[in-house]
Amino acid sequence: MTFGIDDLPVRDELRGKSPYGAPQLDVPVRLNTNENPYPLPEALVERITERVREAARDLNRYPDRDAVELRAGLARYLTDTSGHPLDVSNVWAANGSNEVIQQLLQTFGGPGRTAIGFEPSYSMHGLIARGTGTGWISGPRHEDFTIDVPAAARAIAEHRPDVVFVTTPNNPTGTAVPAETVLALYEAAQAAKPSMVVVDEAYIEFSHGASLLPLLDGRPNLVVSRTMSKAFGAAGLRLGYLAAHPAVVDAVQLVRLPYHLSAVTQATALAALEHTDTLLKYVEQLKTERDRLVAELRAVGYEVTESDANFVQFGRFADSHETWRKILDRGVLVRDNGVPGWLRVTAGTPEENDAFLDAVREVKKEQNT
Ligand SMILES: Cc1ncc(COP(=O)(O)O)c(C=O)c1O
After folding, report:
1. pLDDT tens, 32-68?
2. Could you tell me the distance, in angstroms and rounded to a whole number, from the CA of residue 220 to the centre of ligand 1?
3. Is the CB of 229 under 6 A from ligand 1?
């Protein structure tokens, strides 16, 4: 027997658990991790190279610990795209929105505290809760994957969680959450504790509707988290950020590691912000492709959940894993998120989406015979 995890004195709540792990398989068409399929435009690659070269000259020094220039740029982007005025004091950045969420749970969750999410939703909320010693509560959704507001408010009143997660558009279902729902859950959370409400807007740029950033006005316990991994096409950069009352930004400083955001990351993200207009044009193309996937999957005879994101949930399958495998056998990797009866496909380039649609048409024919 070889020495393994179970032989180490790891924390009890980590024993027997599996790490987050979307398969990274080498297949021709990979539509499983909600990445943007378009490589960064060459002009931006050039600008990144310039900015990183400049940053490299100072790598003997620690980076700007407060990432002030970057946070100001992100605040400008949020203000310009939402019409809701924000400045550097409202914005905090970290290595991916996963790290933002981790810092929020380290600050507002932790041992003896709990967080709630309405599932199925982004599995990392629960996993990061576990990693930070925060208890996890799985709240309900309707059959159609919208949030059941009275049931969610009852769960908040009963469990009095310290952190409430609302993902809009939701992953893996693509479902947008209306402002009234977030307001109702915020009221319920304030009456119960009060607790922090974190609105995860990782995919908001792909939505038919507007960002919920204006709800921050007068609600100091509300946080909106964002990422450059999806709309900005920069998943490899690892840059996430949040917008909130300045007191929230001050609070997360208590747990952030010093100099957590490297000078190279800051330089690259600043270059990407200079090319926002070009990157958002790709978002428009992806929205068109997302809507095409919805229409064509329905035409094939699948059930499709309404999507406001860059991915689409489709079903229903007696055995979704078997269908996942049949699609993979045809060279296309989609995602089995473990939602019984459903699979999720990320909107890729038109050619990738055609390959996916050809594959599912074949699978459908085979399953009908
Ligand atoms: C809802 C949601 N939030 C956050 C993230 C994490 O993104 P990041 O790459 O910024 O860590 C993802 C990634 O898939 C996501 O689906």
Report:
1. 999 999 999 999 999 999 999 999 999 999 999 999 9
2. 23
3. yes
How far does the centroid of ligand 1 lie from the alpha carbon of residue 269, in Å? 17
Nearest CA to ligand 1 atom 12: 202
pTM greater than the 0.70 cutoff: yes
Distance 227 CA to ligand 1 centre (A): 7
pLDDT, residue 147, reads 98
Measured in Å, residue 8 CA sits from the centre of ligand 1 at: 30
pLDDT of the residue at 49: 98
Atom 7 in ligand 1: residue holding the nearest Cα: 97
Q: ω before 194 within 30° of 0 (cis)?
A: yes
Which protein residue has the closest C-alpha to ligand 1 atom 3? Answer: 202
Tens-place pLDDT, residues 333-364: 999 999 999 999 999 999 999 999 999 999 99
Q: How far apart are CA 173 and CA 316, in angstroms?
A: 13
| Mutational test site, ligand 1, from 35, 105, 119, 122, max ligand atoms within 8 Å of CB | 122
Would the pLDDT of 13 be above 90?
no
The dihedral built from the CA positions of residue 106, 34, 228 and 189, taken in this order, carries a sign that is: negative
Please write the tens of the pLDDT for every residue from 261-304. 999 999 999 999 999 999 999 999 999 999 999 999 999 999 99
DSSP-assigned letter for residue 68: H
Q: Domain limits of the chain?
A: 23-40+277-368, 42-274
Number of helical H runs and strand E runs in the chain? 11, 12
Ligand 1 centroid to Cα of residue 97, in Å, is 6
DSSP state of 128: H
d(CA 190, CA 336) in angstroms, rounded, equals 35
Q: Given 2.40.50.100, 1.10.10.10, 3.40.640.10, 3.30.9.10, which CATH number is that of 42-274?
A: 3.40.640.10
Query: For the domain with range 23-40+277-368, which CATH number is right: 3.40.50.720, 3.30.565.10, 3.40.50.2300, 3.90.1150.10?
Result: 3.90.1150.10
